[in-house]
C-alpha cells in the first residue's frame, strides 16, 4: 500500500489489524492525519480540523511551528549528534539555560535537573525515586482524581481505580487525600469552606499518630488536574499544602507535565499561588513536541549516587533543540499572558453555552486548559455534586464536534468532561470558531438525546 495516497478508511483498517487493543484515540477520532500546521490538521481524505487536543497539551506552539522546525533543521544540517545519553553538548546546555530562565528565581537558584527517559510518566517515577532516596521513607501522599501516567509507580498514585483493576491493583504505600473540586466537593461543601476542610484533613492525617499513615517520602499533586477533568487547585489550598508539607518535612512534588510552560496563564501553574515546590516534573511542552522529560528539584534532595537513575533516551538532542526554541518563544512572546486572555475569551463562550443547556453542569479550568462537564439533570444520584456525570452525552458531543471539524478529548469522572487544550498561539478568530462549533455540537447531541431517549 502507498500510504501517502491512501484514505482514512484504508489506514484505519491497517491500524486495527496490526496495533494493540489498547489503542485509544482512533476509536473515537476515526481519521489518519496527513499534514498539520498551527492549530489545524488535515486528514487523509483532505478534511481539515481544529486541534484542541494538540498532543494532549504537548504542542504549546501548535503543529510545525517555524521556530521549532528551524531549530531541528539546524541540528540536522550541522551534523550534530542526535543521541548522547547524559553526555553534555552545546544543545543540552542551551536547553538547560532556557529551562532555568523560565523558572522563578527562588526555585531556579537552588535547582538541579535530572534528564529521564522521555515520557512524563518517567519523570514521575524519577521524582518518586528521588524523594524516597533523599528521605529514606517509602509512602507517598497522592490525591483523588489524579493522573500521573501509566507506569507502575505512576498508576499507584492515581485516584481512578479503573486502570489498576485489570492488573490486580498495585503495591501500597500511597495514601490518597481529597482534592478540592467545587462542583463535586469531597466533603459536601465547595468554595472556601470546602478548601479549608480539605486542608484540615491533610493536616490532621499527618499530625495524628493513629492515622495509619507512615511518615511520607513526598506529596505529589497537579496544580490543575488534567485527565481528572480540568480541575484547578485553589490558590489558598495550594499554599496550605505547601505550608503543611514544609512543617512536616515532606517534599512537595508538583506534576506540571500538562500545566507547565504557559498553559494556565502563568509560566508554571504553581506561580498562581506564589509557592516554591521542592520538585517539579516536566514533559510535554518542554520538548517542543518531541519526547523529553525532566525532573527539576531543590539541591537539598540531591542524594543520588552516580548512576542511581538513568535512561537510554535521556540525551535526545533534537528534543532539546526543539524545547529550547519553544521555551524561548513562550517567554519572548509572553504566551502565558496570552493563554490567560485567550482562555478567558473561550471560557466566556463556553459559559454562554452552559447557560443554554441544563446538561452542562460545570465549566472550569485555567488559561487554555478548560473543561466542560456534562451531566444528567434528571438522573438519580447520591454521589458528590448535584447531578450524575453523563459520559454518554459527552461522547456524543465529542463525535458531533468531530463531524463539524473540531477535535476535543474527554476526561474526568465517567469521561464526562470535554477538554480544551489548544496551542497557546491560537487566534481570537480561531477560538470563536471553536466556541461556535462546540455550541452547535452540544445542541445537536442534546436534541438527539431528547428525540430518541438515547445519546447519538
UniProtKB/TrEMBL annotation:
Cofactor(s) recorded for this entry are:
pyridoxal 5'-phosphate
InterPro entries reported for this sequence: Aminotrans_3, Aminotrans_3_PPA_site, Dat, PyrdxlP-dep_Trfase, PyrdxlP-dep_Trfase_major, PyrdxlP-dep_Trfase_small
Broad enzyme group: transferase
Offer an example of a GO molecular function term for this protein. Answer: diaminobutyrate-2-oxoglutarate transaminase activity
Q: Which PROSITE patterns match?
A: AA_TRANSFER_CLASS_3
Q: Is Transferase one of the keywords UniProt gives this record?
A: yes
Region Disordered: start-end pairs: 1-23
CDD domains from the UniProt entry: OAT_like (cd00610)
EC nos: 2.6.1.76
Matching entries from Pfam families are given as: Aminotran_3
**UniProt keyword list:** Aminotransferase, Pyridoxal phosphate, Transferase
Family affiliation: Belongs to the class-III pyridoxal-phosphate-dependent aminotransferase family.
Q: What is this protein called?
A: Diaminobutyrate--2-oxoglutarate transaminase
Amino acid at each position: 500500500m502507498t500510504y501517502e495516497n491512501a484514505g482514512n478508511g484504508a489506514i484505519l483498517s491497517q491500524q486495527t489489524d496490526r496495533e494493540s487493543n489498547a489503542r485509544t484515540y482512533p476509536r473515537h477520532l476515526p481519521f489518519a492525519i496527513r499534514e498539520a500546521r498551527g492549530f489545524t490538521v488535515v486528514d487523509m481524505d483532505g478534511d481539515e480540523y481544529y486541534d484542541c487536543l494538540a498532543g494532549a497539551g504537548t504542542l504549546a506552539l501548535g503543529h510545525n511551528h517555524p521556530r521549532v522546525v528551524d531549530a531541528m533543521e539546524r541540528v540536522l544540517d550541522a551534523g550534530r549528534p542526535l543521541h548522547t545519553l547524559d553526555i553534555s553538548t552545546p544543545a543540552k546546555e542551551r536547553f538547560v539555560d532556557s529551562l532555568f530562565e523560565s523558572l522563578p528565581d527562588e526555585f531556579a537558584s537552588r535547582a538541579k535537573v535530572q534528564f529521564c527517559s522521555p515520557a512524563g510518566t518517567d519523570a514521575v517515577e524519577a521524582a518518586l525515586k528521588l524523594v524516597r532516596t533523599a528521605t529514606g521513607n517509602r509512602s507517598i501522599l497522592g490525591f483523588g482524581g489524579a493522573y500521573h501516567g501509566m507506569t507502575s509507580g505512576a498508576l499507584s498514585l492515581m485516584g481512578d481505580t479503573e486502570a489498576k483493576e485489570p492488573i490486580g491493583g498495585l503495591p501500597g504505600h500511597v495514601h490518597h487525600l481529597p482534592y478540592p473540586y467545587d462542583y463535586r466537593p469531597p466533603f459536601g461543601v465547595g468554595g472556601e469552606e470546602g478548601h479549608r476542610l480539605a486542608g484540615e484533613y491533610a493536616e490532621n492525617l499527618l499530625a495524628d499518630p493513629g492515622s495509619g499513615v507512615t511518615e511520607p517520602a513526598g506529596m505529589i499533586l497537579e496544580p490543575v488536574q488534567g485527565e481528572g477533568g480540568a480541575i484547578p487547585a485553589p490558590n489558598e489550598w495550594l499554599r496550605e499544602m505547601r505550608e503543611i508539607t514544609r512543617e512536616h518535612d515532606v517534599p512537595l512534588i508538583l506534576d506540571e507535565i500538562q500545566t507547565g510552560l504557559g498553559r494556565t496563564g502563568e509560566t508554571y501553574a504553581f506561580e498562581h499561588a506564589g509557592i516554591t515546590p521542592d520538585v517539579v516534573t516536566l514533559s510535554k511542552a518542554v520538548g517542543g513536541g518531541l519526547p523529553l522529560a525532566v525532573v527539576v528539584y531543590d539541591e537539598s534532595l540531591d542524594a543520588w549516587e552516580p548512576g542511581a537513575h538513568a535512561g537510554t533516551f535521556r540525551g535526545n538532542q533534537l528534543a532539546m533543540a526543539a524545547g529550547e526554541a519553544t521555551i524561548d518563544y513562550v517567554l519572548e512572546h509572553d504566551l502565558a499572558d496570552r493563554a490567560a486572555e485567550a482562555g478567558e475569551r473561550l471560557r466566556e463562550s463556553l459559559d454562554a453555552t452552559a447557560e443554554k443547556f441544563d446538561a452542562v453542569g460545570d465549566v472550569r479550568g485555567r488559561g487554555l486548559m478548560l473543561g466542560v462537564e456534562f451531566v444528567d439533570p434528571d438522573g438519580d444520584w447520591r454521589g458528590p455534586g448535584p447531578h450524575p456525570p453523563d459520559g454518554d452525552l459527552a461522547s456524543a458531543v465529542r463525535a458531533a464536534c468531530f463531524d463539524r471539524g473540531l477535535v476535543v478529548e474527554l476526561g474526568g469522572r465517567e469521561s464526562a468532561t470535554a477538554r480544551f487544550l489548544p496551542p497557546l498561539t491560537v487566534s481570537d478568530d480561531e477560538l470563536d470558531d471553536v466556541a461556535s462549533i462546540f455550541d452547535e455540537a452540544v445542541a445537536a447531541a442534546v436534541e438527539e438525546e431528547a428525540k430518541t431517549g438515547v445519546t447519538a
